[in-house]
Amino acid sequence: MAGGAVANTGDSLGFQHLVDPRRKWHNNRRLIALHAWIVLILITASTNGYDGSMMNGLQSLPQWKGYFNNPSNSKLGLLNAIQNIGSLAAYPFAPYISDGIGRKKAIILGAFIMCAATAIQTAAQSVGMFIGARFLIGFGLTFASNAAPMLVTEISYPSYRAPLTSTYNSLWYSGAIVAAWTTFGTFKVQNTWAWRIPSALQGLPSVLQIFMVWFMPESPRWLVSKGREDEALEILAYYHADGNRWGSFTKFKISAKASRLLTADREDPLVRYEFEEIKASIDFDKNVAANVGWKALIQTPGNRKRMRIIVAIAFFSQWSGNGLASYYLNKILDDINITSATIQLLINAILATWNLFWALLASAMVNRFGRRLMFMTSCIGMLVFFIAQTISFSLFLQHGSPDAAHSVIAFLFLFYAAYDIAFTPLIVSYTVEILPFHLRAKGFNVFNFTISLALIFNQYVNPIALGKSAENSLGATTSCIVVGSALRPFSAIFVHVVETKGLTLEETAALFDGEDAAKHIAGEANTHAHAPIDEKTTDSAESIREHSMPTVQKV
């Protein structure tokens, strides 16, 4: 039978022959410094992960439930969903902030709001005050999470861009681990500090960012878009060239000899190629493709394909069975008769650690296996293990068997391992890399908006459905519905996802705009970088052509 489109990945890549294969991040102090700055940005995802795990943990704390008068299932849904409602309120402004004042300042603005919100949450005297604080957390997080992954992908060294950007969403679980073990540790505190301490710690990543993000480099792509090309070139020269000299953008005075060495770094072949490719791509988007404004997201066939992929992976990342356990693990455990708060908190903490392991492992494998294969493997694994989990859950409801309850937990862990192969690391990195610069903030905002809509429904409806499962097996019915929806990501990814392994950020974005766009950007980059156009332009354009024009193979 006929299979889906399979993209052939060529070996001749536009930038790889400019990269020294012996140059690793751990033996070059500039890359060590760059990666340290990137880690500071990556922890933005930890704040989001902390929230989900903290709310899971708080629901198992008698101190929290008692202080807020044992919230009903409906109120519990609102307590969880309100953060994403806060995010919805910020979405109209987030892309304009990221594109207007820069990636760095957008992150700092979000961090300020989150610090204030966590202080209010920690001091909450009523459920209304707690809900209001969580609304503000979502509002501030939107500004930071819109800018953070874009900054990571736009400043990363080309060879490390995909793994580092994939690590962004994977570190959701680092926050989840801290929250899970914190709520487990404060369980024995016999007063309101059992839940106030976890609430206060949620603001720690934002405090670090407020004090340190000021000093890190801005996105070279954003600087070029604002006409600050010299600053962009200096950042690329300092972090992406092979030397070990001090860059002038650090605002320290440098010697004449160091200045000459920095000039040499500005002429580094890789730096010149990146710089000219960035300029050509931004100019192409602005003046040729007219990729500006919201209308541009659906104006061309290439952009419409981008949006179909982005909306699909955003929606299915929350509607593939993961939403049940992400925020309502304690409800699932209650339904299979595991009611001990200590055991529930322990399972929550172990699950977060398990998820982090698989997500980071998958992030490290992105360049080796490619996006398409990882997405397909993830979809198949999720479908198989969620079906097994649903069968085990139904058997427990029918017979009350402890073995069936233990099987539910086992298949839950296996389901998340499959989910973490692609949907944790790739949904953010794939989204930002397929969008051209002038649409990146707006397109990524659409991605986050879609996720929030899916989450709000999950967080508000799931506890009501799970609460009725013991009465009429509605929980099992809900699981069966999710099994049906789990089939759709496989077909959507099989048809639409294009392989992007081994391309620069600009080459990846050009995949969807056709062969002419690829030739134009590669040609401009090589011409102005003083590279032999007959050699490198052909390699780069051919690589993009092989990715963007998949051959249909018979399977």
TrEMBL record:
Membrane topology: Multi-pass membrane protein
Domain Major facilitator superfamily (MFS) profile residue range list: 37-503
Basic and acidic residues bias (residue ranges): 531-548
PROSITE patterns: MFS
Keywords, alphabetical: Membrane, Transmembrane, Transmembrane helix
InterPro entries associated with the record: MFS_dom, MFS_sugar_transport-like, MFS_Sugar_Transporters, MFS_trans_sf
Residue numbers spanned by region Disordered: 525-555
GO molecular function: carbohydrate:proton symporter activity
Chief location of this protein within or outside the cell: membrane
Protein's cellular compartments: Membrane
Gene Ontology cellular component annotations, sorted alphabetically: membrane
Record field: transmembrane: 31-50, 106-124, 130-149, 170-187, 309-329, 341-361, 373-396, 408-432, 444-461
Family label: Belongs to the major facilitator superfamily. Sugar transporter (TC 2.A.1.1) family.
PANTHER family, alphabetized: MAJOR FACILITATOR SUPERFAMILY (MFS) PROFILE DOMAIN-CONTAINING PROTEIN (PTHR48022:SF64), PLASTIDIC GLUCOSE TRANSPORTER 4 (PTHR48022)
Record-given protein name: General substrate transporter
